[in-house]
Amino acid sequence: MGLELYLDLLSQPCRAIYIFAKKNNIPFEFKDVEVFRDSILGMKTPSETSPGSAQPEQVRKMNVVRKVPVLRDEAFCLSEGIAILLYLSRKYNTPDHWYPSDIQKRAKVDEYLSWHQTNIRSNAPKTMWIKVLIPLFTGQPLPSEKLQEVMEGLATSLKQLEDVFLQDKPFLVGDQISLADLVAIVELMQPVGVGCNIFEDRPKLAAWHRRVEEAIGKELFVQAHELILNIQKLSTIRLNPQLKEQLGPVLLKIMK
After folding, report:
1. How far is the C-alpha of 233 from the C-alpha of 244, rounded, in Å?
2. Closest CA to 141 of 132, 149, 151
3. Helices (H), the chain
4. Of 54, 151, 232, 233, which is most buried, counting CB atoms within 10 Å of its CB?
5. What does each C-alpha distance from 186 to 32, 42, 138, 167, 189 come to in angstroms?
6. Tens digit of each residue's pLDDT (9 = 90 or more) over 180-206
7. What three-state secondary structure class fits 6?
8. Spatial distance between the Cα atoms of 187 and 121, rounded to a whole number of angstroms
9. Which of 174, 157, 165 is nearest to 215 (CA)?
């Protein structure tokens, strides 16, 4: 048994791990868990599961917090996106630019990864819930003011991303792509996928986006983001009525 990665590519951390492993030619078996699509939306039955996929129950057995991503390396299991990225970079001795050996350059990557969690990550994913998922479960759109509130918070984070981290550099911590850029870009594709063009009227960030996509490789970048770029198709599916009744009020309460 070799390296197994249990991922759902609707998840931002899962996409970062998938891209990183593919880009660095790390041999792994991709276990497509489809936690959201299977467990919440009920879009597949067990008989329809493909050979390369994994059931959410398998993830629960390996991960006490019951979520993806999960790495399994022989008998060793690891969760949390950043931890998995760092494990892969160290075990497979990936090119230094991803997570530099220079202590100060590495510290700048760490600085961004810490800032990211309470800034970009706390705002960007909410766009998908507001524009697609909550209307799907409740049958009604949220007031436009709620999206505006989230976009204002995201705009503040984007300005800090540009002014504090990117500045006039090609990438967030220097002349080459790093884990900081990878973690940032997968998160920012979440609002892009639901029709919020956050790169419009931000030419410096738009140029950075193009450089990151080129450094990753356009084909791999598009492949990893195919699901999120088509997320609005979820609005046409038919939900389990019981799930809709249970989750609708909960989601509305969360977003108040």
Report:
1. 17
2. 132
3. 12-23, 56-62, 81-91, 103-117, 120-123, 126-128, 134-138, 144-160, 179-193, 203-216, 218-224, 226-229, 241-254
4. 54
5. 18, 25, 27, 20, 5
6. 999 999 999 999 999 999 999 999 999
7. strand
8. 7
9. 174
